[in-house]
Structure prediction request, 280 residues.
Amino acid sequence: MIVHLVDGTYELFRHFYGLRRFTKGEDPPFGAVIGVLRTVLQMLETGATHIGVATDHVIESFRNQLWPGYKTGEGVERALLAQFHPLEEALVAMGVAVWPMVELEADDALASAAHLAEMDATVEKICIWTPDKDLTQCVRDDRVVQVDRRSGKIRNADGVREKFGVVPSLIADFLALVGDAADGYPGITGIGPVSAAQLLNRYGPIESFPPDVLRDDKRERALLFKTLATLRTDAALFNRVDELLWRGATSDFTAYAQRIGELRLVERCEKARLVQLAAS
Prediction:
C-alpha cells in the first residue's frame, strides 16, 4: 500500500497562477479548484488508492502568536482566497479525504498524516506531494519521501542531506538558523546554509550547541525559530489508514461539478472507480 499526501494549499496556488498565463489576468471563480481536482483525479487514474489532501482553512495558525512576523493571509489575492473553502467542499464531494486546518497549518496535517501512516506496518511507502522544504523533516529513509511535482524529483533521506547538508531530523534546526522568508522569520544573523550545516553536523541540534556558539539572545531566538519550523505530528486526522482509501465520488459530486462548470470530472471519476475495482 502506498499513501499519497497532497499539499492542497500549494496546489491551489500553483493552479491559480498557472491559469493566469492563459486567461490574461482574469480569474475564473473556480479555475484553481478545477485544476486541483484534475490533479488529484489524475493520481487516482494512474493507480493511487489511498490519498489525503491538507488545506489551510485559514492562513493564520498558533505560530502567529509566537512570532509577530509570521506569515498571514495579508497579500494573498482575494480571488485566490475565495477558492480555499470551495476546494475543500469539492474534495469532500469527490470522496477524497481532506483536512482543513485552523489552529495548525496544512504542513502540520501532512506531517501528522505521514506519522500516522508510518506507524501502520501495511504501508509500504508514504509520498508527500509538495516542494515545501519544511516537509523534508518528515522524510524517513526510502519509506517516507517528498515528491516535487514541479521538478519531478523524489527526495528520500539521502536526497535531503544532499540538498541541505543535514539529515531530515535536523531540518527544523537548519531552518531556524538560516530563516524562512516564505514563513516570515529571518534566522540568525551571520549564519548561512553552509555554516548552519557545519554547526549542526558538528554539534547536533541547537539545544546541544556549546554556550559560546550562540550567545544569550541568539540562542533564545534560534530556539523560538525552531519551534516555528518544527511541524506538529499530533493532529488526530484519522484512526486507520483505510480511511484514506478512495471509494469513488459521493452522490453530491455531480451537482458540485455542475456548479463549477466541469461535468467531465464526473465521468472521469466513474471510470477511475471502475478501474480501481477491477484491480482490487
Notes: The mean pLDDT is 95.
